[in-house]
Amino acid sequence: MATQTLAKPCTAVRRDDLVPVCPYCETELPEIYLRKPQGPFGMGRGFVFFCPHCRKVMGFAAQWYPFPLG
Ligand SMILES: [Zn+2]
After folding, report:
1. Is 56 helix (H, G, I), strand (E, B) or coil?
2. What are the start-end ranges of the E strands in the chain?
3. Where are the domains of the chain?
4. Contact assessment for residue 57 and residue 37, using Cβ atoms and an 8 Å cutoff
5. How far apart are the CA of 68 and the centre of ligand 1, in A?
6. How far, in Å, from the CA of 29 to the mean position of ligand 1?
7. Cys-Cys with 22: which of 5, 35, 51, 60 at CB 3.0–4.6 Å?
8. Would you report the helix, strand and coil content of the chain in percent, each value rounded to 5?
9. In angstroms, rounded to a whole number, what is the distance separating the alpha carbons of residues 47 and 29?
């Protein structure tokens, strides 16, 4: 995926050989779930990521590309 961010607060090291672990249920996560939260204007801003096992929210991400809001 072509993720472009303007600000890079730290160096990102790609480690496709490591599997993330859920900080809540400590299950290894070969995949995580994401969905768009529903906003009051019919569109969500960005995505919410959550664990497929315990469904605890692990974080939010901004829109993957600048979305013109008029
Ligand atoms: Zn979990």
Report:
1. coil
2. 33-35, 47-50, 57-61
3. 20-56
4. no
5. 34
6. 8
7. 51
8. 0, 20, 80
9. 18
